[in-house]
Specification:
The structure holds two protein chains of two kinds. Chain A contains 19 helices and seven strands. Chain A is mainly α. Classes of the chains: A mainly alpha, B mainly alpha. Chains A and B meet through helix 1, helix 7, helix 8 and helix 9 of A and helix 1 and helix 5 of B.
């Protein structure tokens, strides 16, 4: 039996020696880093933590900021849910803090309810979920998973964060302006948004956020295309990286039309152009003199905004869900200890999903009277786009088949994601068909549908990601017991919040009602559900307390774990220390020999076969021609 | 037993120079299997998003125009001859920026800088002519709020003008730092001229579309 040998640098070594050597190199690197930090010869603290160009620090910045925005968006929703359950009753505890202009005597005004509604959507979509899914997880994990020293454009990466934060602060600052924040829904439909209050700062904030995500998406695509480690071919990329790549393309190409629309609405508001102002506009019975001597010349088209908005906002739905699917795929493969079922069809489905998401936008506009021919087209494309979603979900479910599942906290969240996203997706079908959408449009059914996709769908995926990569980021693990409490309580209460919305919606209760439907006769039989949902929402808040406690406790006092705590195969675990080097990621630049999910590989000693471990019978790859960006360390091997 | 110190990947080997920057692969030279260096792929992707930005505005123009029976003809209102001169100015600048890049690649920094300066001057010329056009319109009380024809005219030409100014700022920066950068990192500097040039061609191309759509139809 010949013994395996590896070439390390210029030397041939036996496998166990080589692995010892690599570990030693990692250790020396980590020690050097510690010395460097202790010696004070490092960048000043603000360059390391505030204006860092390191993708890991930027990822953490994004993560913390986005989690705070997530909590804030949740808080806005709790205020609204109080009003829906107890219309006209003073809000306990915080009611007096909201100010007389918003809530005199602690009772929320309708205008303030509208501001909360618009800002809840904006904060959750643009400031919480996308920055968490892409800015935090993408930034931190993608370069590590592809074996890159950093993002392709580190300074641009820093700039992305520093455009995102001001964008978010501008949004929030608008609450303190005379007239308050934007209150025209997160969709900002004109002409209301043109004549309404608070919208100007929303648009300016939006331009910041769009620019930020544009820079980020260019950076992600270039990083994934250019900086993959040697041997990491396209079909060896972890599915998470594929999901981030498709997401980046969606952000790159779908956001500019909204930026154009934001410019136009801004001009409508500040320069009195009439892009979205129709002639003869009447508001609440009062003619607005548009095109008849008023400041507006008229002749504009409010539908134009809806087209431009949904041209972004539908791909945005996939921006919200794809990174979540990527995380779920990683967690499922790792905890089932076997390769993902149908990796190629997963990749194909994600790419096809990306393409199709650009041609379904007008299914949000069936009721605008755009005509049956256009409706027919868009309902066809909408039915087609459900196919790749089903492929992805099916592949993930079949991946569980015959597995000896490790029921870790991230895996529980991943397992819950599957049926929750399933409910969210399937309830979308009646909305995608024009005939059924007529009944369901703008009801609580729609709210229930997309919240099932985004809340117990994407947010559960985000939680799975946090629990899964926490040991990578900190070198410590979060408590499993607290994690399980967090999971089960969240799962129960989040369904308590969103499932009754389907019942209310089918009964015809409209969304965006200040009193939750109390004024309508047809809403009376389902009105009691408002109290149930609001109580569930409050309990959902309490269910997050174990998570928050667990998160902070584990950062400093969590159980220390090794470099590859989950016994994973992908590069971020297999080739770096945990936490990774603060400067440069890899002690030894990895070379990739196989696909991302080689768990339970036949004939291999362990039940995981990392991507960067050479195979005995494979010839060493040829040296990188030209350019010389990729260095090799432990690459070649021979038999003796 | 080999020395573990010897196998650090150079990318991570910062030694004791804390301010040493991480070496990102393919910043200057092309990756063999993609044939691109990072900046070039980056600028192409950025331009793709720009296509979507201007594409959305052009689509808006089409939609607004087709739904308005009283939409005026550009040639009756706008100064076609000034715009035509501007078209030639901008096309010339696209030629000069290629020449600047070519000379720098061939090692002739002096000529390269001359053509870079000519590109910058063309940009100036374009903006001056644009300013004259805007001034005339303002003096006739034709503002963005006058009607949607002028709204789209000012929005599209204004956004295009901002892109021209953005390109000029970069050219000015390249021109000022040329000697230093060319001596220190010649390939990287030439790449910067090339990517800025690609952007400049795009700005030029947008005008090639704007000119007939706004002035001639």
């Amino acid at each position: 039996m010949p013994k395996r040998q590896l070439r390390v640098g210029t030397q041939w070594l036996y496998v166990d020696e080589a692995e010892k050597l690599l570990r030693e190199a990692m250790r020396i690197q980590a020690e050097e880093q510690k010395k460097l930090l202790a010696s004070g010869e490092v960048l000043p603290w603000y360059r390391r933590w505030l204006f860092s160009v390191d993708h890991k620090v930027i990822g953490i910045q994004y993560g913390i900021t986005a989690l705070l925005f997530l909590l804030l968006g949740f808080g806005m929703m709790l205020l609204m849910r109080w009003q829906l359950a107890m219309p006209g009753k003073p809000i306990p505890l915080v009611g007096d803090l909201l100010g007389a202009a918003n809530a005199p005597g602690g009772v929320m005004l309708p205008e303030f309810y509208n501001m909360l509604g618009a800002m809840h959507g904006t904060v959750m979509v643009f400031l919480a979920i996308v920055p968490l899914a892409v800015g935090a997880f993408g930034n931190y994990v993608v370069p590590l998973q592809i074996g890159a020293p950093d993002m392709a454009f580190p300074k641009l990466n820093m700039m992305s964060y520093w455009l995102y934060l001001p964008g978010g602060l501008i949004m929030l600052a608008s609450f303190f302006l005379p007239g308050g924040a934007a209150n025209n829904g997160w969709t900002s439909y004109p002409p209301l948004s043109v004549i309404g209050t608070g919208q100007t700062w929303w648009l300016i904030g939006m331009v910041f956020l769009i620019t930020s995500s544009l820079l980020g998406s260019v950076n992600f695509i270039v990083t994934i295309v250019q900086l993959r480690a040697k041997g990491l071919t396209w079909m060896r990329l972890p599915f998470f990286v594929w999901a981030q790549l498709v997401t980046a393309f969606l952000l790159l190409l779908a956001f500019p039309p909204l930026e154009a629309a934001a410019f136009m609405q801004l001009l409508d508001r500040v320069a009195n152009t009439s892009f979205f102002m129709p002639s003869g506009l009447v508001v609440s019975g009062t003619p607005q003199d548009v095109g008849a001597g008023g400041p507006y010349a008229g002749g504009g088209n409010p539908l134009l905004w809806q087209h431009l908005f949904w041209f972004l906002a539908h791909p945005e739905v996939y921006v919200l869900i794809l990174p979540g699917m990527g995380i779920i795929a990683e967690v499922i493969a790792n905890n089932t200890r076997k390769p993902l079922w149908g990796y190629r069809s997963l990749v194909g489905a994600a790419v096809f999903l990306g393409f199709m998401s650009f041609v379904v936008w007008a299914h949000h506009m069936f009721l605008t009277g755009m005509g049956t021919a256009i409706s027919a087209f868009f309902q066809t494309t909408t039915m087609i786009i459900s196919i790749p979603s089903v492929i992805i979900l099916t592949a993930l479910i079949i991946s569980l088949w015959g597995a000896s599942i490790r029921f870790t906290t991230p895996m529980l969240f991943a397992l819950a994601f599957l049926p929750m996203f399933g409910i969210g997706g399937l309830t979308g079908l009646p909305l995608g068909l024009a005939a059924t959408d007529i009944h369901l449009h703008d009801t609580y059914y729609v709210i229930g549908h997309f919240h099932y996709v985004v809340a117990p769908g994407t947010i559960f995926a985000m939680f799975a990601g946090i629990y899964y990569w926490f040991p990578k980021v900190t070198g410590r693990k979060m408590s499993d017991r607290l994690g399980k409490i967090h999971f089960w309580l969240s799962l129960i209460f989040i369904n308590g919040v969103f499932f009754p919305m389907f019942i209310q919606g089918l009964a015809g209760v409209s969304r965006r009602l200040y009193d939750g439907g109390a004024q309508y006769q047809h809403a009376q039989p389902v009105l009691h559900l408002n109290k149930f949902m609001s109580t569930s929402a409050l309990l959902l808040l309490f269910a997050q307390l174990p998570f928050i406690y667990n998160f902070f406790k584990s950062i400093w006092w969590g159980e220390r774990v090794g470099a590859n705590h989950w016994e994973a195969t992908t590069l971020e675990w297999a080739a770096t220390t945990s936490p990774p080097l603060a400067h440069g990621n890899f002690a030894v630049t990895p070379v990739v020999y196989r696909g991302p999910y080689e768990y339970s590989f036949p004939g291999h000693d362990f039940d995981y076969y990392p991507q960067n471990v050479p195979e005995p019978d494979q010839p060493p790859p040829a040296a990188a021609p030209g350019g010389g960006g990729i260095q090799q360390a432990a690459v070649a091997q021979k038999e003796s | 037993m080999a020395d573990a110190h010897a196998i650090h990947a150079p990318g991570a080997d910062h030694g004791h120079d804390a301010h040493h920057e991480i070496e990102i692969p393919f910043t200057v030279h092309a990756r063999p299997d993609t044939g691109l260096y990072n900046g070039k792929l980056g600028i192409w992707l950025f331009l793709a998003s720009e296509v979507m930005l201007f594409g959305a505005l052009f689509s808006s123009l089409v939609l607004l125009r087709t739904s308005d029976p009283n939409w005026p003809h550009g040639y009756n209102i706008l100064n076609v001859w000034l715009a035509m001169v501007n078209t030639f100015v901008l096309i010339s600048s696209s030629v000069t920026v290629v020449l600047a890049w070519a000379y720098m690649r061939l090692g002739d920094l002096k000529k390269g800088k001359v053509f870079l300066l000519l590109t910058l001057l063309c940009g100036f010329g374009f903006m001056i002519i644009k300013a004259i056009e805007y001034g005339t319109k303002f003096s006739h009380h034709q503002y963005p709020s006058t009607n949607n024809f002028f709204g789209t005219y000012y929005l599209l030409t204004g956004l295009h003008g901002l892109h021209v100014v953005g390109g000029m700022v970069v050219f000015a920066y390249l021109l000022v730092t040329a000697n230093k950068w060319y001596a220190a990192k010649r390939d990287q500097f030439t790449n910067r001229v090339e990517t800025t040039g690609l952007y400049w061609h795009f700005v030029d191309l947008v005008w090639i579309f704007l000119f007939p759509v706004l002035y001639l139809l």
